[in-house]
Amino acid sequence: MEHIISIEHVTKSYGRFHAVDDLSLHIRPGEIFGFLGPNGAGKSTTLRMLLSLIQPDTGHIRLFGLDQRLHRREILRRIGSIIEKPDFYLYLSGLDNLRIFGALSHTPRLRHRIDEILELTGLKGREGDRVQTYSHGMKQRLGLAQALLHDPELIILDEPTTGLDPQGIIELRNLILYLKQQGKTVLLSSHILSEIELIADSMAIMHRGKAVVQGRVADLLSAQENLLVHLETGQPETARALLRQSPFAHQLQGEKDNLVELRCHREEIPGLIALLSNQHIPLYSVQATRSLEDYFLSITEQARYSSGM
Amino acid sequence: MRTLLLTELYKIGTRPRSYIGFVAITAIVLLIELALWLDGEAYIGFILQSLEQSFDVQGRILNGQLVAFVILQTLIVQMPLLVALISGDLISGEAAAGTIRLLMTRPYTRGEVLWAKFTAASIYVFLLILWLGLLALGGGMLFFGGGDLIVLKSDGLIILKEADTLWRFFAAFGISFLSLSVVSTFSLMLSCFTDNSIGPIIASMAVIILFTIIGTLEVPLFERITPFLFTTHMIVWRNLFDFPLDIPLLLRSSAVLVGHILVFLGISFYHFSKKDIQH
């Protein structure tokens, strides 16, 4: 199987708003795929369409090489997922919830499997308590537990680190890497680029319903060795005039108040600082971002602005 | 499918609110039986005082059959609410709680999930009726003993021999089950249209009250639509205590009730199969 997930020209609209706009995406089996984008980009809508919670208006979705519309049951048997925050039957215990969802997923040797998963997700000892008494982090773990219970081939996680403490995030990251070692495919959505870069093999960035960036993480990062450097200085005009006379002249970018922006490689930064210092131009800060991160931050900022936050 | 049904029954069985109906029925039935135990003879005497001027009424009039009949008449208003409380929450309650997402990502079709919920709700209704029957008829016979059943009508009086009453009660419970299944299916249908837990419950009761009022008002316009309202046919169980039995009427009303169940189910299946699950 070349692709475990194939999304071809899928669109989903709500009135005049295109939540997903002619999206095409392919995910290989056995990899960790990062699905990035700001709030409202269309990530959750896409994930819901993969899980048949939402019907696309146009396009085709194939999972495991099967048409989603014709083989829904077989496909869902092989997927585990968490969509948004994991919600459970609060009046039941964690164990009862796992029994219900495990039985509905036709999990063989359910009791034994539940014990295994409780150990793996760190919930052992609390499974008998009502979910109503769980913290947010514990509910996230329980969400992961129900997703993994039936040993699925494909695991879809929608912003799984939301609400987790730093230790929890590290544990989740290690778990995802462990799952990959077991041959699973993990589709992981997030609005934090650094989180995805650390573990994903491939990724796509969504913006306004479209995948604006797609590819192998290593390839995308190596293409972004050119950094965008922001120099905060007390004499921006003098600094710009000096740089225009230097080998950095063609690397200068736009002007912003007392910030000087230019693109350069990481190895060039010490030389740049030395050039300005030698001319006694005071430097207050030097910040370097990769253009991919900068692009992602800019579309995130745009999304936040348009949502009125 | 069996696993899905058992899961639905388990969820209903472990929710505290599922027992409100049983507790309410128990309380009401015991209250009525206590009241009749303490003051039933005086009550009977008052009702039959005009008759006793012309007839010599002998035998045990206040008996289990009469008590059960009185209880059935009284509970007809409360039972639909107790049913809507459970059925109206089956889909919308899960949507409000967010568990619908986890449920619908299991390997079942939407139709199978809805069918399991409908079946579980029907089993709940059956158990409610069974409990009512045990308490009303069983409890009535236990505390008051058996006897002939006297049914007062507006145009006369019907006396049903003791041996002729039991099957009528079972048939009445059967029609009550059909009637409450209509309420259950109606609430379930409303539940498919909203993500709010309370809305379908209140809407179901509002519709039942509205239809009941339309059915009782003797207005020519309303009389045209009254035969099509399910509330009109929900009280047809009383005709089982007529003599002679109007079998065509009973069959017609049962068919109307079954027809309503099928229509409401059809609408539910259609909408739920196409619904986007956003929550």
Structure summarized in a few sentences:
The complex is a heterodimer of chains A (about 300) and B (about 280). Chain A contains 11 helices and 14 strands.
Q: Would you write up a description of this structure?
A:
The complex is a heterodimer of chains A (309) and B (279). With 309 residues, chain A is α/β, with parallel strands linked by helices. Chain A is built from eleven helices and 14 strands. With 279 residues, chain B is mainly α. In chain B, strands 1-2 form a two-stranded antiparallel ribbon. The two termini of chain B are 24 Å apart. Chains A and B meet through helix 2 and helix 3 of A and helix 1 and helix 6 of B.
Topology:
The complex is a heterodimer of chains A (309) and B (279).
Chain A: E1 5-14, E2 17-27, E3 32-36, H1 43-50, E4 58-63, E5 66-67, H2 72-77, E6 79-82, H3 94-104, H4 110-120, H5 136-148, E7 154-158, H6 166-181, E8 185-190, H7 193-199, E9 202-207, E10 210-216, H8 217-222, E11 227-233, H9 236-244, E12 252-256, E13 259-264, H10 269-278, E14 283-290, H11 291-306
Parallel strand pairs in A: 3-8, 3-9, 6-7, 7-8
Antiparallel strand pairs in A: 1-2, 1-4, 4-5, 9-10, 11-13, 11-14, 12-13
Chain B: H1 2-14, H2 20-48, H3 64-75, H4 78-87, H5 92-97, H6 99-104, H7 110-144, E1 149-153, E2 156-160, H8 166-193, H9 198-216, H10 220-225, H11 230-234, H12 247-274
Antiparallel strand pairs in B: 1-2
Helix pairs in contact in B: 1-7, 2-3, 2-7, 3-7, 4-8, 4-9, 7-8, 7-12, 8-9, 8-12
